[in-house]
Amino acid sequence: MKPTLFVLAAGMGSRYGGLKQLDGVGPKGQTIMDYSIYDAIRAGFGKVVFVIRKDFEEDFRKIILSKYEGHVPVELVFQGLDALPEGYTCPADRTKPWGTNHAVMMGKDVIKEPFAVINADDFYGRNAFEVIAKELSKEYDRKGDYCMVGFRVGNTMTENGSVARGVCSDKDGLLQSIVERTAISFDADHRINFTDENGQVQYLDPATPVSMNLWGFTPDYFEYSDREFKKFLDASINTPKSEFFIPLVVDALINNGEATVKVLDTDSKWFGVTYAADRPGVVEKLEALHAAGEYPENMFN
């Protein structure tokens, strides 16, 4: 059974200023998503599911989905504030989406096979899709047998500001914990650093694995998510900016022994448009990949 690629495309690019999922950054106007879909297809994924907001469905279908016809089966699901379990009501003043794991939950009715989760606006690279496709194509004989691609933090940095990364701790190849560090940057000596909760500057080895939201799950993950989301809502439904993130669920499942998560290494270099100033560099990198023959001129013709 071929795995499915689940693309999280419901967010607004607040720091970038617009729907960066629809921004053409490739030589022929390709979006970053196009490269992920292309890499996923050649790595062995058999279907793509997008989760988006209902209010940009028309543009998404016209600009994004139409180009994949004949290349891979695609489906759309929608994330909305009112997509809550029975007995729960969205507070009237809530405007912020419920978070990445809530977005994942929207795929429950259409995904019945192992699946990888990615962000729409991140370039992950060919090798990253190859390693996770290989893992997800294995036979699974138990629940909670998951994986993630651990990018080397040095391959995920930008010169245009700080970044947030989930810094991973692993043992014998299995994830032990993820600590979100919200302001990782280069110092004057180009060392990678952040300030911890005690106000102390800490340095990261460039090879330190970090999560870039490239996860691999089996369908039982939806059951666990339903349970954990109710716990989240019971505690935080009235907190306007609270979000139900994937690492919150993964961490809970690891801690109570219901799941193990393999950390898969990749030599792929991540890049994305975190800030508007990142865009020219992304355009240049993609042009270079095309020039090197990594991608054809017309990817979906």
Helix and strand topology:
Blueprint: E1 4-8, H1 32-43, E2 47-52, H2 57-63, E3 74-78, H3 100-105, E4 115-119, E5 122-123, H4 126-136, E6 145-152, E7 163-171, E8 174-186, E9 192-195, E10 201-203, E11 209-217, H5 220-236, H6 246-255, E12 260-265, E13 271-272, H7 279-291
Parallel strand pairs: 1-2, 1-4, 2-3, 6-12
Antiparallel strand pairs: 4-11, 5-13, 6-11, 7-8, 7-11, 8-9, 9-10
Helix pairs in contact: 1-4
Roughly how many Å is the radius of gyration?
19 Å
Name the CATH architecture of the domain at 4-142 and 211-255 and 271-291.
Alpha-Beta Complex
The sequence of SSEs as H and E is: EHEHEHEEHEEEEEEHHEEH
Overall helicity:
25-40%
So what's the CATH class of the domain at 4-142 and 211-255 and 271-291?
A: Alpha Beta
Global structural class: alpha/beta
Overall residue-averaged pLDDT value: 92
Q: What is the name of the CATH superfamily of the domain at 4-142 and 211-255 and 271-291?
A: Spore Coat Polysaccharide Biosynthesis Protein SpsA, Chain A
Number of strands: 13
Shape: globular
Distance between the termini: 26 Å
Percent range for β-strand residues:
25-35%
At the third CATH level, what is the topology name of the domain at 4-142 and 211-255 and 271-291? Spore Coat Polysaccharide Biosynthesis Protein SpsA, Chain A
| Number of separate helices | 7
Largest sheet properties: 11 strands, mixed
Give the uncertain stretches in residue-range form: 12-18
